[in-house]
UniProtKB/TrEMBL annotation:
The keyword Electron transport applies. Keywords: Disulfide bond, Electron transport, Redox-active center, Transport. Residues 15-79 form the Glutaredoxin domain. This is Glutaredoxin-1. Gene3D superfamilies: Glutaredoxin. It comes from Phrynosoma platyrhinos.
Length: 105
């Protein structure tokens, strides 16, 4: 179920953030991406906080991305990591071109 849920959310030209409401890194990741004004419908924030299967989802995220912390951020089907990694992409100047490559910007 967790696997199905996560995979159903990912799409080639979409940015997806799996987060939790009490997580400051999640809010910073969402703010950073919202500031870039991605194409409508190409950014989705998924709040895992109130889901009964949150642990299963995080276990599955660990399995496919190497970490179960939130945020877990996907560009298409590729996980770019968490907020620190997103911020590093911004600072290095790679972020916008990666978003353009997947068709989200
Ligand atoms: N360096 C990571 C830090 C992420 C992190 O520490 N997230 C916390 C929440 S703010 C977390 O996942 N804690 C465990 C949990 O909520 O299951 C990032 O930038 O994404």
């Amino acid at each position: 179920m967790a696997q199905q849920f996560v995979n159903s959310k990912l799409a080639p030209n979409k940015v997806v953030i799996f987060g939790k409401s009490g997580c400051p890194f999640c809010h910073r990741a969402l703010d950073l991406l919202e500031e870039l004004h991605l194409k409508p419908g190409h950014l989705e924030y998924i709040d895992l906080s109130n889901r009964s299967d949150v642990a299963d989802i995080q276990d599955y995220l660990l399995q496919i991305t190497g970490a179960r912390t939130v945020p877990r951020i996907f560009f298409g089907h590729t996980c770019i990591g968490g907020f620190t990694d997103l911020d590093a992409l911004k600072r290095s100047g790679e972020l916008e071109s990666l978003l353009k490559q997947i068709g989200a910007l």
